[in-house]
Automatic annotation (TrEMBL):
<feature type="transmembrane region" description="Helical">
    <location>
        <begin position="52"/>
        <end position="73"/>
    </location>
</feature>
<feature type="transmembrane region" description="Helical">
    <location>
        <begin position="221"/>
        <end position="243"/>
    </location>
</feature>
<dbReference type="GO" id="GO:0046872">
    <property type="term" value="F:metal ion binding"/>
</dbReference>
<keyword id="KW-0812">Transmembrane</keyword>
<dbReference type="InterPro" id="IPR014472">
    <property type="entry name" value="CHOPT"/>
</dbReference>
<feature type="transmembrane region" description="Helical">
    <location>
        <begin position="255"/>
        <end position="279"/>
    </location>
</feature>
<keyword id="KW-0460">Magnesium</keyword>
<keyword id="KW-0594">Phospholipid biosynthesis</keyword>
<dbReference type="GO" id="GO:0005789">
    <property type="term" value="C:endoplasmic reticulum membrane"/>
</dbReference>
<dbReference type="Pfam" id="PF01066">
    <property type="entry name" value="CDP-OH_P_transf"/>
</dbReference>
<feature type="transmembrane region" description="Helical">
    <location>
        <begin position="345"/>
        <end position="365"/>
    </location>
</feature>
<feature type="transmembrane region" description="Helical">
    <location>
        <begin position="85"/>
        <end position="103"/>
    </location>
</feature>
<keyword id="KW-1208">Phospholipid metabolism</keyword>
<keyword id="KW-0472">Membrane</keyword>
<dbReference type="GO" id="GO:0006646">
    <property type="term" value="P:phosphatidylethanolamine biosynthetic process"/>
</dbReference>
<feature type="transmembrane region" description="Helical">
    <location>
        <begin position="150"/>
        <end position="170"/>
    </location>
</feature>
<keyword id="KW-0007">Acetylation</keyword>
Amino acid sequence: MALYEYVTQEQLAGFDKYKYSAVDTNPLSVYVMHPFWNSVVKFLPTWLAPNLITFTGFMFLVLNFVMLAFYDFNFTASSAGHEHVPSWVWVAAGIFNFLAYTLDGVDGKQARRTNSSTPLGELFDHGLDSWACIFFVATVYSIFGRGESGVNVVTLYYILWVVLFSFILSHWEKYNTGVLFLPWGYDISQVTISLVFFFTAVVGVETWYRPILWNLLYRDFFTFMIIACSFTVTLPMSLYNFLKAHRSNTLKHSNLYEAFLPFLSPVLLFVLSTIWVVFSPSNILELQPRVFYLMVGTAFANVTCKLIVCQMSNTRCQALSWLLLPMTAVVLAAVKGVFTNETLLLYLWTAAVILTHVHYGVSVVQQLSKHFNIFAFSLKKPSSD
């Protein structure tokens, strides 16, 4: 029995009719990574469940986050005058990041190879991808840190939101067009960051202090690339695909309000978290950047997963995520000084958000496993008793 039936009967009926449709035009992915993944998947045993591959890859990113949290909890280790992260940690981070990327690429191939493709597999994959955004961004942040040659915690907060909105754009596209257009930036960033981790292990974080050209630092270059990629590639391509579907009269939601409804909860989440950042009495983002990023990233993943469920089941997007209601109260309590220990409030709310999201995920996986009469992490079939 599911912990709670988050997926409605209408959505279950929609999942029964679901067919996967995606477009990947990235040359790196098409000509390099897919051939590599096709070779890797042949080494996997045929009894290995695709969802177990997906979950293992996700846990490598969580492991990176935890490992860097141990050595660099406040993102100061890469700053001059501080004890730096050991070189072996960067090597491990590079290996784990590339393993996570590889497993994310072979899980679908394993599903087709074992004839075990289900809507649950895609939902599980993309749901974990939405949560992985925060673990990926926070781990990369430790390379530059928040020192004089690093990135300010507030700047990183807005960069995180650029990454989050870039992620949800793809699923907004699919919600409206029925086709998932895989972003070019994902493959390029994963390969690049893995290489940067290895490079840092060899040359040390001091290398990133030096300017590339004149007074342009590496942190400025990376910040520029993330923002430029989002606003000159990801966003324009999403809008182009949306308008193309509109012109061909193939949009699933021709009403503009319905078409842009998926952005309501993420925008409200951005507004609430930004109000907390700007009006925090104790400057909470400076005090606890890692925990604050984790809270925002997890809340975002919860909102995004609900969109993915609606998108895959071809049902109307939920206008407002209920998680934002208690968050509104938490933010008001923080900025008004009702809860004097703001750090404790952040920790308690972050724990609540994580538990809520895990409960949601486990419940949905159990419910869909029961509906499709499958095991989530095994290719064996449940008994009919």
